[in-house]
Amino acid sequence: MEQFFSDYGLVWIGDVDSNENSESESEENTCNKESCNIKAEGIRMTHTTRSISPNFQKVFSSIDELNIMATEPQIIHTRSGATFKQCELLNLNLYADGIQLENEPFREYSSLSVQEFFHDIEDGYYPTELKGSYPNGVVFK
């Protein structure tokens, strides 16, 4: 369970005892630069905003699999018949502290959008943020 939460930048603190509820009613949800503590229904969760680097080996493997699926030509029907359409290429630059996609600005690994980007890839899906621009997938290079 702890590993699952850790994969998403969360830390499981455990269930809150009923004794703790009565002794500290003034304790509220708190957030600062480092973390957010959220208390609800007897459960306390901490979300850390520390820099999280993705598992590069898994990312590269998943990108290879996604690229294989995306390189299969798609059949496009036209008035005079049909043609094959190749998937578009997208530059993905990985740096020690963040990523940069094609002509977009640099983003750090600690950013929530980058963490979601890599979780989608590690789970074997195209990143959600690219579905609007590339609904049929994209080849990362």
State the separation between the terminal residues, measured CA to CA.
Answer: 35 Å
Topology as a string of helices (H) and strands (E)? HEHEEEHEEEEEEHE
Number of strands: 11
Return residue spans where pLDDT drops below 50 for at least 5 consecutive residues: 21-26
Number of helices: 4
**Main sheet makeup:** 4 strands, antiparallel
- The SS-based structural class is alpha+beta
Using the alpha-carbon principal axes, give the shape: elongated
Instruction: Give the % helix.
Output: 25-40%
Query: Roughly what is the average pLDDT, rounded to an integer?
Result: 78
Q: What portion of residues belong to β-strands? A: 25-35%
Biggest sheet, spatial arrangement of strands:
1-4-3-2
Radius of gyration: 21 Å
GO molecular function: ubiquitin binding
Pfam families: SEP
Protein name: SEP domain-containing protein
InterPro entries: NSFL1C_SEP_dom_sf, SEP_domain
